[in-house]
Task: inverse folding
């Protein structure tokens, strides 16, 4: 009974605190100040059993007539519609159909009867009003049957990034309506050569790559490194405040942890030409980093504390061991080894014991463990001339194919709710980042400039 | 920082030699690329600009008259027409085959002749491997070439390795002709 109702205990104050805390975590500067929740209304919406609720996102109302407010109202409505469609929990009534309904000019004058004719169960609508130092944004979910608001929030803050209001409202609507952690406020990081810059070296000019971040839907793409060298394999720390990546800025490969909102960084693995380190990944609690290093003469998996102390070697094998990923519990690590010939995906306990292979044939690399509740591992498998994204299920012991053989598809990364996978694909020519639902539907292109690879999704 | 200092010295020397051979211009240190100026508002601070070299200006030596362009050339020209033969590898392999050994035998002779040169051995892979596994495979390719050179008596101190995976293909094509060129250990002279 996930979608029974919007519940609201009388814990508005508590919710409010939680919301603020989350936003402080997830919307670091330079995003605008966190929108603040000011009110809640409690109510339920009941759609027909067994059928997704039919949702109409009505045009948001600009209560101030200036162009900025009008534009913000349109953006928030459009983005919220996309956000709500992303999890495929609702049947979203198309924009062309909704265009036949006259625009409401006030939240209290919504043409309910016309939405009833479309068999809509819920109307999502909102308003934007200019205030002294920004905007006040109201978002409501109206039960079409009763005409009453089942969800109502007011947010206030800067007008600089109107999308943030839509993302916050979307995540809250998902949480309250279907008990689902949405991903509208999560971010992607990836490596890109879009700047077309080249580094000069003894081997001649070479294309550089810098680390970028973007909203989950590809908006607000922004460069976070400026090193004019090769920077690859970025991963988010679980708190979203730092990104670890592999950089060649000192010539050799080493792991940099960049506190992207503070402008400081660390090199916990303390690399050198003789001790190169790459492919870092944070443990789910953020206290450790697993990585690959050749410090003992061969690519092996290591784990260190986040400050670089307590380095422990996890694998000991003359073959290649590379690209670790943590289980959501933190108790296990999956990685790639070619100890039997071709690269295959293996799993071990986080202390290095109990090593076993889980893929059985072909060429398989870059495992990435799904967050709860799916006990699965995504990886790239060689298919023909390229790669496809596969997902291995521990329950069945089998893998299923997610991508369709078009282009080469690599480097899968799960969304924090496990329902989506970001990956790099050459399906349109240059390599770009895409997201796809875990059932292989709903492919979306995230990047369009230059070549982009090594995506990773914030928690 | 020590590496950077060494590099700077190498650059200064290279410039001195290059200048000394040809034109009348006084030797000048090659300009160091300016530190990156563009940073996003949220970005990291750009790396600190390279420290200026504080040693006394190096008096240019009388240019040695030499017919050997390798002895007199600067690093850039040496690497542009590299005397070293790359080692090529089979798909998914880091084994040095007989042909690769021949190349390395010849490369070892050059390293013996120019006994002050240090080189970086770059490991490269073709696009048919995954980006991540290729980082390790490229490293193994570079290490395999290094191990062979050391077995021929070249000091390990003169040989650095780095893997670029499939990041820097030599041939951007998408066929075996391109791929076979891109699976290699590539030699770059980094100081002389």
Result:
């Amino acid at each position: 009974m996930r979608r029974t109702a919007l519940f609201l205990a009388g814990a508005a104050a508590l919710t409010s605190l939680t919301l603020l805390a989350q936003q402080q975590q997830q919307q670091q500067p330079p995003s605008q100040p966190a929108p603040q929740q000011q009110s809640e209304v409690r109510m339920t919406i009941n759609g027909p059993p067994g059928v997704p609720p039919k949702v109409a996102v009505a045009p948001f109302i600009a209560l101030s007539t200036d162009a900025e407010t009008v534009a913000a109202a349109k953006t928030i409505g459009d983005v919220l519609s996309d956000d709500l469609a992303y999890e495929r929990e609702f049947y979203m009534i198309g924009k062309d159909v909704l265009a036949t309904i006259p625009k409401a000019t006030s939240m209290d004058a919504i043409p309910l009867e016309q939405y009833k004719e479309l068999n809509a169960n819920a109307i999502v609508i909102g308003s934007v009003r200019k205030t002294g130092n920004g905007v006040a944004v109201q978002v409501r979910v109206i039960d079409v049957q009763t005409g009453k608001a089942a969800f109502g929030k007011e947010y206030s803050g800067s007008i600089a990034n109107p999308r943030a209001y839509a993302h916050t409202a979307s995540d809250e609507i998902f949480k309250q309506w279907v008990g689902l952690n949405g991903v509208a406020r999560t971010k992607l990081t990836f490596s890109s050569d879009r700047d077309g810059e080249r580094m000069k070296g003894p081997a001649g000019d070479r294309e550089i790559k810098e680390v970028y971040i973007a909203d989950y839907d590809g908006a607000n793409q922004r460069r976070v490194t400026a090193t004019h060298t090769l920077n690859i394999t970025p991963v988010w720390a679980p708190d979203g405040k730092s990104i670890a990546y592999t950089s060649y800025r000192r010539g050799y490969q080493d792991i940099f942890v960049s506190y992207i909102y503070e402008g400081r960084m660390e090199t916990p693995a303390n690399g050198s030409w003789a001790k190169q380190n790459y492919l870092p990944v944070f443990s789910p609690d953020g206290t450790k980093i697993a990585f690959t290093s050749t410090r003992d003469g061969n690519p092996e998996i290591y784990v260190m504390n986040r400050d670089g102390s307590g380095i422990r070697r996890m694998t000991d094998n003359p073959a290649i061991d590379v690209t670790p990923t943590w289980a959501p519990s933190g108790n296990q690590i999956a990685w790639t080894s070619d100890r039997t010939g071709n690269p295959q995906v293996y799993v071990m306990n986080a202390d290095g014991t109990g090593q076993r292979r889980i893929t059985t044939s072909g060429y398989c690399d870059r495992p990435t463990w799904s967050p709860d509740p799916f006990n699965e591992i995504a990886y790239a498998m060689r298919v023909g001339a390229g790669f496809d994204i596969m997902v291995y299920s521990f329950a069945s012991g089998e893998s299923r194919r997610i991508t369709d053989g078009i282009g080469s598809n690599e480097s899968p990364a799960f969304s924090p709710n496990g329902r989506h996978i970001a990956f790099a694909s050459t399906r349109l020519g240059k390599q770009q980042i895409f997201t796809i639902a875990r059932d292989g539907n709903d492919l979306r292109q995230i990047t369009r400039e230059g070549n982009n690879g090594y995506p990773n999704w914030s928690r | 920082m020590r590496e950077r200092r060494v590099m700077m010295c190498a650059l200064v020397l290279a410039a001195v030699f290059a200048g000394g051979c040809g034109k009348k211009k006084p030797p000048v240190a090659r300009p160091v690329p300016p530190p990156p100026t563009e940073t996003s508002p949220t970005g990291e601070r750009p790396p600190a600009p390279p420290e200026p070299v504080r040693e006394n200006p190096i008096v240019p030596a009388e240019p040695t008259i030499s017919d050997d362009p390798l002895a007199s050339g600067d690093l850039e020209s040496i690497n542009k027409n590299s005397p070293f033969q790359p080692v090529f590898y089979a798909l998914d392999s880091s084994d040095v085959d007989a042909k690769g050994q021949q190349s390395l035998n010849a490369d070892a002779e050059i390293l013996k002749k120019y006994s002050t040169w240090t080189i970086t051995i770059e490991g490269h892979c073709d696009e048919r491997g995954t980006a991540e596994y290729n980082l390790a495979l490229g490293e193994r390719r570079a290490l395999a070439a290094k191990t062979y050179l050391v077995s021929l008596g070249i000091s390990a101190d003169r040989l650095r390795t780095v893997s670029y995976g499939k990041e820097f293909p030599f041939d951007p094509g998408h066929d075996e002709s391109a791929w076979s060129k891109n699976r290699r250990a590539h030699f770059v002279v980094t100081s002389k």
About this structure: The radius of gyration of chain A is 24 Å.
